[in-house]
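[step 3/7] fold_predict: job queued, chain A
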Amino acid sequence: MSESTGHVLIAPDKFKGSLTGAEVAARVAAGLGPDVVTVALPVADGGDGTVDAVVACGFTRVEVEVTGPTGQPVRAAYAWREPAGAGEAGPSVVPSPVDGVPTAVVELAEASGLRRLPGGLQALTATSYGTGELIAHAVRRGARRIVLGLGGSACTDGGTGMMRALGVRFLDASGQELPPGGAALRSLEKIDKSGLMAMDDVEFVVASDVDNPLLGPHGAAAVYGPQKGASPEEVKLLEGALARLAAVAAHTHGLAGAIEHDGIVRPMGVAAQPGAGAAGGVGFAALAFLAADIRPGIEYLLDLLGFHDRLDGARLVITGEGSLDEQTLHGKAPAGVAAAAAKAGVPVVAVCGRRALGDEELNAAGITAAYALTDIEPDPAVCMAEAGPLLERLAREVARRHL
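[step 4/7] structure written:
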């Protein structure tokens, strides 16, 4: 490849319901044609598709049968990476965030996501238990870093299900374990950490684009409860239950308004910390019980996937997702890709299923132009069914205009 031309870096998120990020990248590459040198790097922001994205970049998929959000067994996966030169992983193609440390990427949506619900929504009783089982499996395998992607959750249980799977007990006034789900936390009296799995040498990183606190009008129940089927009355119930969890957590740990974990003291303001409300409060549990660091999902995952290495020498970046809309501008993958490319002076165009942003908004986000499937096929049902071939047509237009 000559330096004067460079390669095209194709770094899309999934088109939800149609194509994985890897499939989007493949279709775009096919549409650009054989004379264009391309590098495919599917990306994700910590939500649905995160495991698929990191597996496509060299991690190993590990499948485990775990507990789904309603208690039924589901087959879920996490992504695994050994350090360079260790075990089955072979030569490392992943940069510094994973070098020297066995790393597992656990996507909450894999075990505890809305897509795992066998029937209707279960706002009051859905559990994050299966996510904890994935973490436990990875720790037993030897993980020393767990990257926890939060997004697409079915539960509002404050992460108590996840922590139960790791050995923590949530008890009522009679010393009995509470049933699963957020609603039961109204009766919480004590948290028993004595059975917590040994994880002193494990680093936890939460990759999330959500900055909501646990409680209040911008909290887990108020903002995300309705998306999980909660009525206004149930939102109030869940808000009270999560407030009870935060209060008992402080009291159980014997600290006035603070939580201690492995010698790290966190003020009870952890409930107000940005990201504590992620995934129905799973962010709170990760902060309070696992001493996790919360990082912006797309920024951290771009580092993990080696985006900056692959950006070097690129003449164009093509990113995208199913819908380019207002949410895209708030930490979603295309905005993160565009921001990173802008720092390197590489232009960015986007492809998508539908576009709800104007040119001015896109340009402000660092995206030069955007091309939507609905530009060439107005029927959304056809766009979903024929996303692959339509995307190749869009890519030919991108090549004509930008290459």
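[step 5/7] annotate
The CA atoms of residues 214 and 277 lie 4 Å apart.
Residues 50-298 form a domain with the Glycerate kinase, domain 2 fold (CATH 3.90.1510.10).
exit 0
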